[in-house]
Amino acid sequence: MDVQTVCDIMAQELPDILRQDTRVQQTILGIARSQFANKIETESRFDRLLDELRRERETQHEKWKANQAVLDRMMDEQRAERAEQDRKWEANHAQNSEMLKSIRQLERRIEVGISALGARWGIQPEEAFRGALKVSSQ
Description:
Blueprint: H1 3-20, H2 22-33, H3 39-121, H4 123-137
């Protein structure tokens, strides 16, 4: 018989022989044991890997919480700065509105005063006075 025929017969018959004859089973396991980790070693390695993954996940979760706390604090600071800037803008806007109101009142008083001069002096002197004011303001 050639080697290929023996291999074919073994592939067909070996599973049944292993189930029936513990001596053959122990012999094959003894030969294979040097090539493969046993069940206890494999489970131990797997458990260690799972523990390491769990610890890493916990570490990352703690880092995330710390980073989130920093981000929350930064956002609170930015909100406070924004509120302060809004308050300053509102105060500045109110001040500008008051100044504009004062300028408009002053402009109105000047306009009324010039019109009163025109009424006293006449139209031509008023137009000359207005023209002189425009030239001097430019």
